[in-house]
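Hey all, quick one. A colleague (J.T.) asked me to put the 1,6-di-O-phosphono-beta-D-glucopyranose job into the tracker so the inputs and the structure tokens live in one place instead of scattered across chat threads. No bug as far as I know, just bookkeeping. Sequence used:
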Amino acid sequence: MSLTFKLNGNIKGLIFDLDGVIADTAHLHYKAWSKVGKRWGFHLSADQNEQLKGVSRADAMQKIAHWAGKNIPPKQLDYYAHEKNIYYLDYCEILGPKDILPGILNLIQLSQRAGLKLAVGSASKNAKLILEKLGIINLFQTVVDGNMVENSKPHPEVFLKAAESIKINPEHCVVFEDSQAGIQAALNAKMYAIGVGASELFNCHSQIQTFEQFNLLELLNQLNN
Ligand code: B16
Ligand code: MG
């Protein structure tokens, strides 16, 4: 994948991942998976958790069972994944506007003023619920979540559906992602990929640690000519 990729024309749409980009829910997923792992006497390391970011619940469950050396029948794995979601939703009870990551609201306001379309593309089946809790679901023209796709990231489906829904060609879209699987999904969708967070992300076009460092006008100037 070429890193000299340039948008074919103007930026018209921004697509945001949810967990780890709009809100810091990644540690809640980690806590919930760890609780499931502990039932088998398995400790999920921070490095392993990193590899679960952007990965669907079912795929994450399979990875954990593999790491734990467990050979568990599919139905039972479904049950454990369901249990993880109960823990996760319980931890999410306290989520509210205070949990929106710094700089996001400012970026949304600026983007609206610049006439950009805004979408969410998340692997999470809980994405809409979380966005409602954060009080920002209405700021996005569309939310494509894990219930609406057949293929998980790094497959581009979630971002292509988001672009289709806001009626913007993929080559006019910028994706913000905190996971390696998500960066690859954006590249596979032929979109401009911006990595978010402190973890090293390979192959993204650029990376920011937080949105407080991000300058939309600079990006528009850089890419819109
Ligand atoms: P759920 P994102 C992803 O969300 C998370 O990064 C990942 O850790 C989680 O396993 C996945 O959603 C599925 O979430 O269990 O809520 O359906 O980063 O793509 O917004
Ligand atoms: Mg994420």
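Adding what we noticed when we looked at it: Confidence is low (pLDDT under 50) at residues 1-6. The beta strands are 13-16, 117-121, 142-144, 173-177, 192-196, 206-208.
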